Amino acid sequence: KDRLFGGLKKTSSKLTDNITGLVTKAKLDTEDLDEIEDALIASDLGPAMAAQIREKIAAGRFEKGIDAEGIRQIVEDEIAAVLAPVAEPLDIDAFPRPQVILVIGVNGSGKTTTIAKLAHLFLEQDYGVMLAAGDTFRAAAIGQLKVWADRIGVPIVTGPEGGDAAGVVFDAVKRATAEGIDVLIVDTAGRLQNKRELMDELAKIRRVLGRLNPEAPHDVVLVLDATTGQNALSQIEIFKEVANVTGLVMTKLDGSARGGILVAAAKQFGLPIHAIGVGETIDDLRPFNAQDLARAISG
Ligand code: GDP
What is the ipTM of this complex? Predict the structure, then answer.
């Protein structure tokens, strides 16, 4: 918890510094409300969320006036209300097994690390886990995933660099099925530079999966780097076009001043948020808890 609160400190202080300086008065005027709204927007909460919170504060009846803590509480409540419906851990419940989780996202977003963290989490829950190195585009990606797999102690299916990603996925599903694996986590190439190619590749993986198991992929998880701010939002938009995104994991919330982007994403897209990344080690994946996050972001 400390890591999350510590990490989001930068986001929240950006917000509270602005608010604290502002309110010790009994009644807020338009100028005060403008300032609050600006502070909310500066915290990456997004204009829609900022306007909603402003309305809420403006509409409030405060017998003895409202102070910074009162405002902070409203901000927390409003954020929690937006986050609560999207807080949804990944469920391993697919039968017949394996459940196939496709992981997508641009390079550098923390995709590989998140796959390792998820694998570790499922192992701890006593599921049989296997990885598939479906990012055949980068040799480094295959190597890196293999290092994680060995470290955690899960089997991994790889193919040659530059090879056919769908082929790797095909082999992986067959092997996972034969070995009674519960969860197969599939890495994919994150080449947003060439949307057409990426779309074709994902479509091909889907076709291959569908041939082996009509329900697969059961989950398509988009990994986003919170520190990229607004960029993360446009990535959701683009990936929604190229893949049927079913949920999100947001990484690097430790030490990011842009934690508000999580709220903006929830507000704008309403996609389930499965977990958050708060560091580089295997244990640094947190379940997405709406109230905790709302508290951490609001200060
Ligand atoms: P990929 O290219 O999307 O597979 O990204 P990686 O998993 O290789 O991660 C890119 C960098 O971000 C690495 O240095 C990771 O250690 C780091 N990283 C990933 N997730 C987190 C996180 O939640 N917090 C922090 N601080 N770093 C992270």
Answer: 0.99
